[in-house]
Write a structure and sequence with these properties.
This protein has 110 residues and is mainly α. The chain contains four helices and no strands. Helix 1 packs parallel to helix 3 and helix 2 packs across helix 3.
Length: 110
């Protein structure tokens, strides 16, 4: 006899799509040689400590906001992107996200 138990989709690893995107971008930059993972961990840990996020984090919003802040500051220090440019791009993505119908892919307008 076989059971017809209902199978549910696995829980997403990331709560929000942008969490996965910023994580993937960081991994890509590390693999491309832009920074060592040890240096990344040191900087990210300092960001968490500065924000008082020393408790066990579950990968939620505060964790990924700290992750994004670390990446943006790292790229600014590296000269890869000016802070004003990063802020402008963040605003463009936010506007695109807020004006995209639920469930539709988010794209930046040309």
């Amino acid at each position: 006899m076989s059971s017809c138990a209902e199978v549910s989709a696995p829980e997403p690893v990331f709560a929000e799509p942008w969490h996965a995107q910023v994580f993937a971008l960081t991994v890509h930059l590390n693999e491309a040689g832009r920074f060592s993972w040890a240096d990344w961990v040191q900087r990210f840990s300092a960001t968490l400590k500065r924000h008082g996020l020393d408790r066990d984090l579950d990968g939620g919003e505060d964790y990924f906001r700290a992750w994004l802040e670390t990446l943006e500051s790292y790229l600014a220090e590296d000269g890869a992107v000016a802070p004003a440019e990063a802020e402008q791009m963040r605003k463009r993505w936010e506007e695109a996200y807020l004006t995209t119908p639920h469930g539709a892919p988010v794209h930046l307008p040309e």
